Amino acid sequence: MAGSVRARIERFVDLVGEWTSWLALVIVALMATNVLLRYLFSTGSVWAQELEWHLLAPLILFGSSYALRHGAHVRVDIIYARLVPQKRALVDLVCGLLFLFPTCFLLVMTAIPFVVSSLSVLEGSPDPGGLPARYLLKMAIPAGFLLLGLQGVSELVKNFAAVRGGKAGA
């Protein structure tokens, strides 16, 4: 049963990660266009500059769970790389319990009032010509950390099995 739940979580994280990865291409095109407009034509717009970070935030928030899923997150490998798989799983298990879950919980709980406040006033950009509906961007904060926590559950199951003697990838 744990394996099927884990598989569903990972399929969902992969789907979100694959869709989110397209934001990187859009951000590169948008930034290049903004730079060209600014330096070649001495023009630009507030909404286009705001759109850059309106796209970057979801890329980071939703991409972090994908990075955790595929082991592409930041880690100090000096000692970790020399450990046997079972010891690596133990390190990942302990770090997940001590750092990942509390951080995700704290950020979700802190972000919810922030989102509710933004939603209650239908917050938009304070700048003339800026983007409306900033509350949608703020909703990505708890959603991103919930998704990261969900992938953390999958990692917890995988690492617990590895520590108990199962295969690390099982």
Brief rundown of the structure:
The protein contains 5 helices and no strands. By secondary structure, the chain is an all-alpha fold.
Q: Into which percentage range does the β-strand content fall?
A: under 5%
Task: Report the span from N to C terminus.
Answer: 13 Å
Strand pairing plus helix content: what structural class? Answer: mainly alpha
Low-confidence stretches: none
The biggest sheet, with number of strands, parallel, antiparallel or mixed sense and barrel status, is:
none
Q: How much helix is in the residues? A: over 70%
Radius of gyration: 20 Å
Number of β-strand runs: 0
Number of helices: 5
How many structural domains in the coordinates?
1
Give a written overview of the molecule.
The protein has helices spanning 2-41, 46-69, 77-80, 85-120, 134-163. The mean pLDDT is 92. With 170 residues, it is mainly α. Helix 1 (2-41) packs across helix 5.
Question: Topology of this protein?
Answer:
Layout: H1 2-41, H2 46-69, H3 77-80, H4 85-120, H5 134-163
What distinguishing features does this structure have?
single chain; mainly alpha; elongated; 5 helices; 170 residues
